[in-house]
């Protein structure tokens, strides 16, 4: 390969030194073209490239800053959630303890209420038994009285003959008449 300076030196040795022509050596012309393009790009593109890199750097820093802020917010929310969880767990334990004591209290109230109801039912049962016993006693007395009355009537009817029966009726009629005269 030829050196870049050789290509400039060789310009003077061309047969048509005063005219314009094409250099047919591809390697030497490509190096010149590339160096010119790179020089132009560096000269004009330096500001654009640095602006692009600065913008990219700012965006990355902003993204990192936002990520840090979001991370801090997330940590804060996590701590708040943990505190709420602890509070809810304590309240749940309190409700559980209160629930158990409330259940025991309700259980005792139910037992007392049931005991009172059973006592009242026992009293009603005893009153009903006494009432039924009294009624049965009254019915037995009434039947005994009716049987005694029938027996007495039967004895009277068998002991009375017609004449005694007529005399008793006449005496009773006489008494009724005398009572009527007194009331008049």
From TrEMBL:
Gene Ontology terms describing biological process: proton motive force-driven ATP synthesis
CC per GO annotation: proton-transporting ATP synthase complex
Keywords: ATP synthesis, CF(0), Coiled coil, Hydrogen ion transport, Ion transport, Membrane, Plastid, Transmembrane, Transmembrane helix, Transport
Coiled coil residues, start to end: 71-98
Major localisation: membrane
Superkingdom to which the source organism belongs: Eukaryota
Record field: transmembrane: 31-49
Localization, UniProt: Membrane
Molecular function (Gene Ontology), one example: proton transmembrane transporter activity
Topology with respect to the bilayer: Single-pass membrane protein
Record function comment: F(1)F(0) ATP synthase produces ATP from ADP in the presence of a proton or sodium gradient. F-type ATPases consist of two structural domains, F(1) containing the extramembraneous catalytic core and F(0) containing the membrane proton channel, linked together by a central stalk and a peripheral stalk. During catalysis, ATP synthesis in the catalytic domain of F(1) is coupled via a rotary mechanism of the central stalk subunits to proton translocation.
Family: Belongs to the ATPase B chain family.
Protein name: ATP synthase CF0 B subunit
Record organism: Matelea biflora
């Amino acid at each position: 390969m030829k050196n870049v300076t050789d290509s400039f030196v060789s310009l003077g040795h061309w047969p048509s030194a005063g005219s314009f022509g094409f250099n047919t050596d591809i390697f030497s012309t490509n190096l010149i073209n590339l160096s010119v393009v790179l020089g132009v790009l560096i000269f004009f593109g330096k500001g654009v490239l640095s602006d692009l890199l600065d913008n990219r750097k700012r965006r990355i820093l902003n993204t990192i800053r936002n990520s840090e802020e979001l991370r801090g917010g997330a940590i804060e929310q996590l701590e708040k959630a943990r505190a709420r969880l602890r509070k809810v767990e304590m309240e749940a334990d309190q409700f559980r303890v209160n629930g158990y004591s409330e259940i025991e209290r309700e259980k005792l109230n139910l037992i007392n209420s049931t005991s009172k109801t059973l006592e009242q039912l026992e009293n009603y049962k005893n009153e009903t038994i006494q009432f039924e016993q009294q009624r049965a006693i009254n019915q037995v007395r009434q039947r005994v009285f009716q049987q005694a009355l029938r027996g007495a009537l039967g004895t009277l009817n068998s002991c009375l003959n017609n004449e005694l029966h007529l005399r008793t009726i006449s005496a009773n009629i006489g008494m009724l008449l005398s009572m009527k005269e007194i009331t008049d």
